[in-house]
Specification:
Shape: elongated
Largest sheet: 3 strands, antiparallel
Number of helices: 2
Strand order of the largest sheet: 1-2-3
Structural class: alpha+beta
Radius of gyration: 17 Å
Number of strands: 3
Strand content: 25-35%
C-alpha cells in the first residue's frame, strides 16, 4: 500500500507532507508556503524561464481589469 498525506500546518503558513510506501522507510517534511502576497506570487512566476501560455493568457486578461 501507498499513501501521501498533505496537511496545512503552522497556522496556514506551512504544508506538512508524509509518504508511506510498503517496503520503504516512511518520509515526512514540513515546508513553508513562503510569501503569498500578489507581488511575491507574480515574482515567482516571472522567475520561470520557460513559456507558460496559461499564465500569459491570464496576465493579458488581467490588463483590462487593473
Amino acid at each position: 500500500d501507498q499513501s501521501l498525506d498533505l496537511t496545512l500546518a503552522g497556522g496556514g503558513g506551512c504544508i506538512a507532507t508524509s509518504v508511506r510506501i510498503q517496503g520503504h522507510a516512511e518520509a515526512s517534511r514540513v515546508v513553508s508556503l513562503g510569501e503569498r502576497g500578489l507581488s511575491a506570487l507574480i515574482g515567482q512566476e516571472l522567475r520561470i524561464r520557460s513559456r507558460d501560455h496559461a499564465f500569459e493568457r491570464a496576465v493579458a486578461a488581467a490588463q483590462g481589469v487593473v
